[in-house]
Amino acid sequence: MTATILDGKAFAARLRQRIAGDVERLRADGITPGLAVVLVGEDPASAVYVRNKGRQTREVGMKSVEHRLDAGVAQDALLTLIGELNADASIHGILVQLPLPGHIDSAAVLDAIDPAKDVDGFHVLNVGRLATGQKAMVPCTPLGCLMMLRDHHGSLSGMEAVVVGRSNIVGKPMAQLLLGDDCTVTVAHSRTRDLTGVVRRADIVVAAVGRPGMVQGDWIKPGATVIDVGINRVDAGEGKTRLVGDVDFDGAVRVAGAITPVPGGVGPMTIACLLANTLTACCRAHGLPEPEGLTP
Ligand SMILES: Nc1nc2c(c(=O)[nH]1)N[C@@H](CN(C=O)c1ccc(C(=O)N[C@@H](CCC(=O)O)C(=O)O)cc1)CN2
């Protein structure tokens, strides 16, 4: 068996096109959704993500604002900037790129963002709302995974899902979203006993541990759907590097029913869902109907 490849790049392109149509209609009514992205420091990967976020925001017709702060910036200065963005009516979404330098209390910064503008869904109020099944801003990567799973399967009801990884950004919100779609959900992690056996019983495996190739092909139940959230840069020899996921793709593709590649799987959906959340936040701010299909 060779798995169906779930093409996140193409899915994200379609989603951006649809968002661009919605933005065009809003702009005709005098409303331009605005997204502010804050980057602290010079982490090269973060700089690329922020650049791509700005470009894609402009491409769908939204207003894009970027704030680049020195790695040594004082936490108070960052909080002041967030306060200004909270008060700016032309900004509907605020995102602080992670990770932040060690001297900054990330939770304090994320919780300073107006929950209505928290397009990352990391504010504790949005975390609580998602966990209790209320209307929330939902973290972009898990939202993208859910969209791809629903697109492939239709209903996820009754499926056995295993999320490997318990981060606040992916693992925990992913588990909440799958629960919301009536899956039976297990959150596994590096200390899980018999991890192989736990993964083997899953109809849906979401791997988000940040360890290259950790989930082996023979851990996968034949026909299962595998969503690989890992983005690991590894040595490819001759001074080059390449991106690999948390799943051993070559092994898993022979067993799974469907699988996301790395690159070109979940990654592109992260930024597309950021744009989706910004559009949703803008509509909510203006008391307009929610755009369909962009929230769980
Ligand atoms: N505030 C946030 N910080 C971070 C988030 C986040 O959602 N919010 N997620 C990640 C990084 N990230 C977005 O910020 C992100 C990661 C990967 C991709 C992506 O498109 N990946 C491509 C490959 C890109 C490459 O060649 O390097 C792919 O998988 O095909 C987009 C966004 C951590 N920080």
Automatic annotation (TrEMBL):
Entry similarity comment: Belongs to the tetrahydrofolate dehydrogenase/cyclohydrolase family.
The keyword Amino-acid biosynthesis is assigned to this record: yes
Claim: Oxidoreductase is one of the keywords in the record: yes
SUPFAM superfamilies named in the record: Aminoacid dehydrogenase-like, N-terminal domain, NAD(P)-binding Rossmann-fold domains
Domain Tetrahydrofolate dehydrogenase/cyclohydrolase NAD(P)-binding span(s) in chain numbering: 139-284
Subunit architecture: Homodimer.
An individual GO BP term: L-histidine biosynthetic process
A cellular-component GO term for this protein: cytosol
GO MF terms, alphabetically ordered: methenyltetrahydrofolate cyclohydrolase activity; methylenetetrahydrofolate dehydrogenase (NADP+) activity
Function according to Swiss-Prot or TrEMBL: Catalyzes the oxidation of 5,10-methylenetetrahydrofolate to 5,10-methenyltetrahydrofolate and then the hydrolysis of 5,10-methenyltetrahydrofolate to 10-formyltetrahydrofolate.
Enzyme Commission code(s) on record: 1.5.1.5, 3.5.4.9
UniProt-listed Gene3D superfamilies: Leucine Dehydrogenase, chain A, domain 1 (3.40.50.10860), NAD(P)-binding Rossmann-like Domain (3.40.50.720)
Catalyzed reactions: (6R)-5,10-methenyltetrahydrofolate + H2O = (6R)-10-formyltetrahydrofolate + H(+); (6R)-5,10-methylene-5,6,7,8-tetrahydrofolate + NADP(+) = (6R)-5,10-methenyltetrahydrofolate + NADPH
Entry binding sites for NADP(+): G165, R166, S167, I231
Taxonomic lineage: Bacteria, Pseudomonadati, Pseudomonadota, Alphaproteobacteria, Rhodobacterales
Cited InterPro entries: Aminoacid_DH-like_N_sf, NAD(P)-bd_dom_sf, THF_DH/CycHdrlase, THF_DH/CycHdrlase_cat_dom, THF_DH/CycHdrlase_CS, THF_DH/CycHdrlase_NAD-bd_dom
Tetrahydrofolate dehydrogenase/cyclohydrolase catalytic domain boundaries: 6-120
Pfam families reported in the protein's UniProt record: THF_DHG_CYH, THF_DHG_CYH_C
Domain of life: Bacteria
Pathway terms, separated by semicolons: One-carbon metabolism; tetrahydrofolate interconversion
Name of the gene this protein is made from: folD
Protein name: Bifunctional protein FolD
Keywords from the UniProt entry: Amino-acid biosynthesis, Histidine biosynthesis, Hydrolase, Methionine biosynthesis, Multifunctional enzyme, NADP, One-carbon metabolism, Oxidoreductase, Purine biosynthesis
